Amino acid sequence: MARFFFYSICMFLLLTTCKQNNKTAKVVTAANAGTLALISGKMQGYINQRRLPGMSLLAIKNGNIIYNERFGFSDIVDKKMVEEGSIYRIFSMTKPITAVALMTLYDKGKFKLDDKLSKYIPEFEHTLVYNEIEGKHSTEPQVNEMTIRHLLTHTSGIGYGWGDSYVATLYRDSMFIDDPLEIEGVVKRLAKIPLKNQPGTTWEYGHSLDVIGYLIEVLSEKPLDEYFESAIFSPLEMNDTGFSVPKEKRNRLVEIYTLDEEQNLIPHSMSVNEDIKNEVTLFMGGAGLVSTITDYGKFCNMLLNKGELNGQRILQETTVELILTNQLPKGVKYEDGKGHGLGGAIDLETREYFWGGSASTKFWINQNNDLIVIAFSQLMPANSEFAENFKSIIENALRSDYE
Q1: Which of 74, 93, 343, 367 counts the highest number of beta carbons within 10 A?
Q2: 103 CB neighbour count, 10 Å cutoff
Q3: Could you tell me the pTM of the whole model?
Q4: Can you give the three-state secondary structure of 298-319, one letter per residue?
C-alpha cells in the first residue's frame, strides 16, 4: 500500500508540473506518501469494527487524482465488495447539482437571483408565514417576498416536516399525500403551507432545492431529469448519475444500512433503494440522485476549475464564483458561524464549499488549496466521522504543500 502511495504522489508531481505552466510545482515528499498510508488502517478499522458497511474515498489535488480507494462491502449479507463503479444514494448531495443546473439558466439570462419566485411560480405570491400569537396559531403576509436567492441559500422560510412544530405537522399531513406525484404537484401543494420564518431572516433547512428543481422545469421547459442530463451529466460524462438505476446497473447499487440497539449493522428498514429501481416520476432536486464517487469527482472538478472540465464549459467563471461564495442575507449565519453559497455551505476561513447526504456521503471543495475530498458510505442516520478523518489525513499529508 505504501508503494502505491509513493507512485501515486510521483505521478501527481509529474502531471502537476506539466499542467502548471509557469507556476512552480510544490514538492510532496516520500514522508508525505507514508502519511497517506495511515488512511488504509484507519478506514479499514471502521469496517473491521462493523461501524460502517463499506466506503469509497477520492481526493483530487490540482485536478489530479491523488487517492482513489475502496473498503468494505456494498452488500454485507452476500459479502459483495465495494467496487470502483459502485452506485450510491447521495440524497442531499443532489442539492449542489440542482443549484448548478439552475445557474446554467442564469447564464442564459432566464432569471436574476433576486427575482421574486412568484414571477415564475405564481402560487407563492400569497404564501403566508406562520406566527404564534398568545399561544394561538396564526399567520401573516411575507414582509419581503421570497426570492430565488432565498431558495438557494435555505433562507426562504421553507422547512422539512421534521420535529413537533405546528408547521412540521402540516408538511407531514399534506405534502406527499396521494402519492405518487410529480414535482409540480408537490411544489404547488407546498406553496399552500405557511413558511416557518419570514424569507431572508433565518437559515432553515428544507424543501427549497426541491422548489428549485421545479423552477428549472419551468424555465427550461424540460423535465428535470432531461435537463440534468443535457446540461451537466452528458457534457461531464457523468454516466452513472441520475434519478434511477437501470436494470443492467443494479448489481452495482450499494445497500443502505443502519445500526440496531446493540450497534450492529443491519439493512435499513425503510427499503430506501426500492423506489430508484423503478421508473421515477417524482424528480426531487433536493435529494433524488444516485451517483458514483468518480462521477461526483467530475462535478466537483468542474466547479473548482471555474466551470469547465475537459473542454466542456458548464458555467461562466463569474457564476461559479457566486456558487462558491457566501450568499446569505446580512445578519444570517449557517451553523457554527459558517456561510452558505448556492446549494452548499461555505467555510468562510478556508473557502471550502461542502455538503453531505443523509446516508453518510460528503464532499469538500477547497478553493485555497485546489483540493477536492469526497467520501461515500451508505449508513443512515448519517455519520461523517470517517469522512472527516479521511479529509484530515489527506490535508496533513499535503500540508507542507500549502505552507
Answers
A1: 343
A2: 24
A3: 0.91
A4: HHHHHHHCCCEECCEECCCHHH
